[in-house]
Write a structure and sequence with these properties.
The structure holds two protein chains of two kinds. Chain A is mostly helical. Helix content of chain A is 66%, strand content 3%. By secondary structure, chain B is an alpha+beta fold. The longest helix of chain B has 43 residues. Classes of the chains: A mainly alpha, B alpha+beta.
Chain lengths: 76, 615
Amino acid sequence: MAPKPIASPVPDAWYPTLAVFMLAVGLVVTASFFIYEATSSRRNRSLAKELTTGAVASVFLGFGSLFLLLSAGVYV
Amino acid sequence: METEMGFSRFALFLFTIALLSSPVLSDLVLSKVDRRIYLTSQIVRYTATLRVENEGSELVSEVLLAFPELQAKNLAYLTVSVNEGKGKQKVSTDDLPIEVVSPKNMPPAVSFYSVTLPKGLAPGDSLTLDVMAVFTHALQPFPEKITQADIQLVVFQDSAYYLSPYAVKVQSLSVKLPEARIESYTKLENTKVHGSEIKYGPHEDLPAFSYSPIGIHFESNQPFSNAQEVEREIEISHWGNVQITEHYKLIHGGAQSKGEFSRLDFQARPNVRGASAIRYLVATLPPRAHSVYYRDEIGNISTSHLWSDSKKTELLIEPRYPMFGGWRTAFTIGYGLPLQDFLFQSEGKRFLNITLSSPMVELVIDKLIVKVVLPEGSKDISVSTPFPVKQWQETKISHLDIDGRPVVVLEKTNVVPEHNKYFQVYYKFNKLSMLREPLMLISGFFFLFVACIVYTRADISISKSSASYLAKQQWEEVQAAIQQVESIINRCLATHDKLEASLRDLSRTGDVQACKAARKTADGLLKDLSKELKPLLAFLQSSPSASQILPKVEDLVAKEKELQERVMTKHSTVVDAYERKSAGKDIENRVALQQQKITALKQEVDDLMEYIDEI
């Protein structure tokens, strides 16, 4: 069986585009998180909403910063 | 003087050998030996074609090769293969296994290598073997110290007769020099010089262990680039890159430079003053190499050129200064390669297939250290190399690592470009381990968000009974109530919009029943909402800190109520008009007044909401 070459799971050429999109979405969700924090009063705040917004924002920001590092040449 | 002493040393050697009666080894005889020695660079390359005949009566399975011990110390690479072609056609097969042996009853100061024949040599049969040997540091510069204007002369010593434990019937030797300038050479009978080539022989019917020392003193301006230490680090990232970083410590291995160095002379007449200096080095990198850099401790070195085509990438680098004998320099080269050219998958294991040694052309390396850094989470690591090397494992902590990445370290001494073969590193890697890196980043960001949540929820005031603290608490409760009022009013407004929509539907479809049903639901909703509003209003009226905002809120509620009533009346008027089937224009006239008031009220309500929002 001839050996099969292994490549990255995400094509190289997509790295910069993915980085920009994921970071943009992540920053938008972060903004909504902070707006919710600033405008809601203490009693009305719901922990579930805060945590989910924070989790979604951190997933997008995490992947976005990973692809940013890869597109800059720091192959982590 | 040096050469003569060297000669006398070898003459003594010959004498010693002649004294000892040479033992009869096996019954092999070398019927034809053709040797060629290439002295065209600092690395001495030696090829010999031996025609071995079995004149005994037993099957012979090994052939012994002998080298004088002084030469064997410099031996870097030795391969023997069987030559199957006939006549001028040379077809080489795979390399035969070679072992260092020390048989008994042999002359001293001779090293023996035993070559195992795959099929054995039957009695009466003959076989042609191709021997290729590479020697380093075999050219001695003589004189040992030269000035910038002198030419570099080196001495090479060997034997005109092939040193072998078997008798040799016919043999010849040809020595190829880099230039036609020969200072002196040993003249035996049958010695001819053609330009830059010296031919010794043919000699016939020589017994085993015959030896005749010769020395050749000639000019060599080839760059004697000698790396004392090369450290090559190969870092694999499964995201698509193999990064290679090489650190070199270079020295000029030719005649030592004495006296002063004149840059003016060197640049004005380089071939006269400094012909043997190392001006540049060439490295052949794999194709599709990217991000190539060349720097040293001071910083980037810009004197370099890079050409690439589809088969290779050539890098030409010039050190910061031309190197004369004994001068040193140190630098680092780095480049990246695409992952799919070097990493493969077979039978559940992944393996890296890459060249072992430095890509530099004609570089002699005294000590080579190769470090292969595998991604974190790699297990069951094993290495397969074409020749024996010293190996051990280490750990390296790099980007986004928890414990560190496993590193396989290979070490070899006395390395020549013939050692630059492919080797493999096998390991197992679970695909899910690749997610470890983004998960680390995600958890880092999530920690920041949790910290924000904790900060906004934490109550860090020192005194819980001070006036300002209590006032702040009350104001927060008022704010909460106002926000709830706002949301209720928004829902009321939404219900009004639904009613308006139902009116539009009515004008489209003429379905009065649906309109009436919408009216009923709207009624119910609005009643519920006003019920919810009551306790909130009561609370706001009772709390003292809401006194400023209270009139506005009450105003808002009142206006909203009025709006509600007007929308309801408008709705019922229109529905009645439809039931009585009066004309469109009629309906509009009836509701015109109501409509005006409605729009005005809507505007006021919106303004008030905005004002309250901004508090």
